[in-house]
Structure formats: C-alpha cells, structure tokens
Automatic annotation (TrEMBL):
Annotated family: Belongs to the class I-like SAM-binding methyltransferase superfamily. RNA M5U methyltransferase family.
UniProt name for this protein: 23S rRNA (Uracil-5-)-methyltransferase RumA
Claim: S-adenosyl-L-methionine is one of the keywords in the record: yes
A Pfam family per the record: tRNA_U5-meth_tr
Gene that produces this protein: rumA
Chain positions recorded as S-adenosyl-L-methionine binding sites: Q297, Y326, E347, D396
PANTHER family named among the record's database cross-references: RNA M5U METHYLTRANSFERASE, TRNA (URACIL(54)-C(5))-METHYLTRANSFERASE
Active site residues according to the UniProt entry: C423
Taxonomic placement: Bacteria, Bacillati, Bacillota, Clostridia, Lachnospirales
Domain TRAM: 13-73
Organism: Marvinbryantia formatexigens DSM 14469
Span of the signal peptide: none
Record keywords: Methyltransferase, S-adenosyl-L-methionine, Transferase
Molecular function via GO: rRNA (uridine-C5-)-methyltransferase activity
Amino acid sequence: MTDRRLQVREDMERVIKKDDYVQLTIEDISAEGSGIGRTGDMVLFVKDAIPGDEIEAKVIKMKKTYGYARLMKILSPSPFRVPAVCPVAKQCGGCQIQEMDYAEQLRFKEKKVRGNLERIGKFTDIPMEPIIGMEQPFYYRNKAQYPIGKDKDGHIVAGFYAGRTHSIIDNRRCFLGAEVNEEILNIIISYMEKEFVSPYDEKTGRGLVRHVLIRCGFTTKEIMVCLIVNGTTLPKEEKLVEALRKVPNMTSISINTNREKTNVIMGKDVRLLWGRPYIEDYIGNIRYQISPLSFFQVNPVQTEKLYSLALEYAGLTGKETVWDLYCGIGTISLFLAQQARQVYGVEVIPQAIDDACRNAKINGIANAQFFVGRAEEILPEVYRRHRIHAEVIVVDPPRKGCDDSLLSTIIEMQPERVVYVSCDSATLARDLRILCDNGYALKRCRAVDQFPMSVHVETAAQLEKI
Ligand code: SAH
C-alpha cells in the first residue's frame, strides 16, 4: 500500500463520536426541519440551524453514515437568518424555520418541489409558476389545541409539549394562531384555579381537563371552545360559560369526553354547554359548518388560493364530469361543482363524507355526489360497472401519494386532464412520472405555502392527455 492510500484510510477512520465538537456549513434542511451539514462522509442534522449558517455543533448521537448534533455557536450567521418572533420558538416543535427570512422560506420550498420533480420524477423544463406565499405569514391557523397540565410548582399551565417529552411548557401566545386564544386560555385557567378544577395527569390518569380546543371562523369571526375532559361534567360549569361567553363572537362552548389513556386528543362524545353545536366559516364563497370533531383546513386563506388553482387547472366549462379523489369534507369538490356538470367525490372516512354531504346541501349544490371508501377501490368499481366517463380527475392524497392501482385506473379512463394536489412533492414526483410515461404531459405546476414557518409545502400540478 502506498503512503497516500494509508493517509486516506486514516482519514476515513477518524470517526466522529458522541460529544465531539465539529464545525459545519449548513447546506440544506431535512424533512423534519433540521439544518443539514457535512463533515467528511458524515451527514449531521442540527436543529435550529439554517442554510448558510456556519456553526460549531456538538455531536449528540451517531449512526453509521449520519448523526445528530446540537447547535452550540453560530460562527457566521446565514444572510437569511432573522430573529425569531416567538420567544419559545426553539423549545416548541410547532415552528421549524422561524429564524429563516420568509422570502427565503418561499425560495427554499419552491426549490424543494423543483428538486423532487427533477430528481425523482426525472422531469426537465418544468413548467413551474412562482410559489404563492402569504402576505402575513403569522396568525394564520384557525385551530389550536392546547394541552393543560401542572408545572413543577403545581401551577396550572397551558402551552405545548417540550421536545419529544410530554412535559408542558406554559405558553398561551402562539404566533401562528388567533390572537384571541390567549384571552380564552386565561379565562379557562382562572376558572380552574377558582373552582379547584384539576388538570389531567397523564401518568396517573387522574384529573379532569386534558386539552382546550379553540376554533375561529376567519371570515365569520365566530369562535368555538371545546374542553376535552376526563369525565362528562365540570364543577360549576355555569361559571365557566358565564366568563367565556363575554368574549366577543363566542358562538359555541362544549365539553368532549375522553377517558382513555391515549395520545389521541379527542373522544367521541361532545356535550354542548352553550350556543350552537358548530361554528360556520367560508372558503371562497362556500359556507361550512364546523363542529368540534370535524376536519377543516387550518389555513383558510391559503386553502382558498390552492383550491382556486386546482379549479383553474381543471379548466372547466360547465359540461364536464369530474372526480375528486381523497375528497375529505368535499372542499375541492364543492369548488369544482360550481363550474362542472357533475362532481363525484371519494373519501375513506365516513364522518368526512357526512360533512361533505351537509356542506353541499347548505350551499344548495345539487351536482356533487359522494362515496365512502378507498379511492383505488371505488373508482375502478364505478367506472367498470357504470362506464362513467370523466373529463377531469382531481386527486389530493395524503403524504404517501396515490395507490398504483388507482393510477392504472386513471390511465385506463383517459380523462382530458388530471389535477394533482399534493402535500409531499416526493410522492407527487413519483406519481406524475407514472402518468407521464402513460400518455400524459405535465403542463403547469405551482407550489403554495399553506404552513409558513414549517418545512411543509403544497403543490398543484396539471396534466393533459397527449
Ligand atoms: N381535499 C380534502 C383534503 C384531502 S386530505 C379537503 O379539503 O377536505 C387527504 C384525504 O384522503 C383525507 O381526508 C384522508 O382521510 C383521505 N384518504 C386517505 N387514504 C384514502 C384512500 N385510500 N381513499 C380515499 N381517501 C383516502
């Protein structure tokens, strides 16, 4: 062996171990929102570091080819680094990239989508339109779920779970949620203190109040409060109601019972204490009734932009038959129904379909029909049995993307256009490649930022039959 070879081997064997200090330049962000840096062949994930940062980090865990390190010192900050707006941004898992300038967050997300389409989808000359961001990237969530507990001094706290633990850090002001949440939490906690209502203790399974769910209609301003309780009643409920109903626009106050030892937040039963059992809100011109247990998009402003884009990509004239697969509560279906002849929605969760039907009814939409079941089973069955042709098929699947057999049915049905709405651009790229190898061409695509301060990004793509 020559000297040089020996040298190389020695370098490779200089392994990085736990507790080592390393200097890194952060190049990218992982799916979980950590900064990614390299040293030799090793990839290190560093929470709270952003691309462009030069840092000193301490290794906390090593695997074979990658590891995790803690940010110890920023040697030279990224030009895109900004101070966090929220004082607890680092401890709370809710935001991952709050210290990254918002314009840079948008560039990063667009690059991520393009990168996946190129690398996984093997697309070149991608017809990508500029990402749609938010004018005001804070206070965008219409729903908040605060765990309630006790701190080590026995005070009642409401906030968020620290890191991966289940200990609660008191923080009633989240910069992503509605500003009124803080006032509502203060009211609930002072009621609990006055009436000696105990928070739930996960370890013992004792205590009453587990979580507080707050939902706000951004258009209607209506507010819903639901306390998730380890029991069916609360002491002196009338006192709680009296205080909460003073909050302007309070519309619905209820209790949800959850007696299980589980991480699932909500139980099945809801009892109304005051007001209406639901609040109403709008996405575009469609009205929705939202009860404590219903699903509803958490960022209505960006949802309207994303689904309007899906509608534009569908290119409807009023004559078309359209399928909306993975339709949830029918948000896209009802948008499409206003410009199509007939819309069929398919969704696996029965309660979501109940909501979809009710939403169609309260909006006077008669040309939308919904099916409960797996899209990959319902679509082929209905197509083969009834030969229902489709001009346009829209899909909005969960992160894992579309089932292979569903893509095969779409290819067999030969719609003029396919509109793919995706929350994971890696599975989007994989599925678009299959469609584009089988008679379709990618005509337009655009990312939409539904979740500023997080690494998530939504994408809409339009495919046309060649
Ligand atoms: N556009 C919808 C949200 C889509 S989210 C809305 O606005 O409400 C993805 C949906 O796919 C979820 O509601 C999930 O329950 C549903 N889903 C997951 N797997 C499915 C399957 N195999 N077939 C049909 N629906 C499915």
